[in-house]
């Protein structure tokens, strides 16, 4: 399938869309068979995707010319705005996504969706929770403390009510990757599943790159205020791991040091010192992989002036000495 064929297919009026066009404001008869739950006195539809537990991935186009009442999904949902725009209402707050934006909703996010028009093409990618956790978290959490926190926030928290919004600034690469994914999903060719897995993984990496490059442009939002704030705190620690301490960090973010210490531990599962040490180890590993600096110089660069202490912490973290780590990554 070529891009033009995909575009034509996505813009074709489906049977469901014809129903909505012929019956403005009507609710699909399918809603009669969808389970509901009572949340704070409101009836909320619970969208289930039984096939996703077997296939792990399901890709579909949202029906146009209709709205969607309050609902949740039983699995993680990624929405890509292929064309036009789409407005969700979450906790009474309107969130409008435009072409090429991406939103990822965790399982318990209660939201509704306003009516979308003919040019509003919204792609819905349902991922099984095990796929999202195992496939993405195992590959991406090692890259950055901040990356790990963001991904874990959406799939490993007790309350699954977070959502992430990526304004991709019209990234052509993101668009092409979603198009490749949709084309492959519709082809059912040999190794299609492997390619789709790879495309989705690359999409996530590109989204995280966009986030890291535009942290100050609000390219990512989490539903919980304190969770959103902790992102800035962790980001600051990552950038200033050599010089910051709990007191200066607390002053920077207007917290009492004891409260900030508790907040960091509560939201990340790690103490300030553990996050700081983790960043030192990650930077040391980067130097070992990508430079010829002697190990004692690397130790000093990441804030260790006692070589034995550096070796001890490095071995605790990586299970090998710095030399063994360097050798293992340069064996070829």
Automatic annotation (TrEMBL):
Q: Which PANTHER family match?
A: ARAC-FAMILY TRANSCRIPTIONAL REGULATOR, HTH-TYPE TRANSCRIPTIONAL ACTIVATOR RHAS
Q: Give UniProt keywords alphabetically.
A: DNA-binding, Transcription, Transcription regulation
A molecular function GO annotation: DNA-binding transcription factor activity
Q: Name it.
A: Uncharacterized HTH-type transcriptional regulator ypdC
HTH araC/xylS-type domain: residues covered: 231-328
- Which SMART domains does this UniProt record tie to the protein? HTH_ARAC
Superkingdom is: Bacteria
What Gene3D superfamilies does the database record attribute to this sequence? Homeodomain-like (1.10.10.60), Jelly Rolls (2.60.120.10)
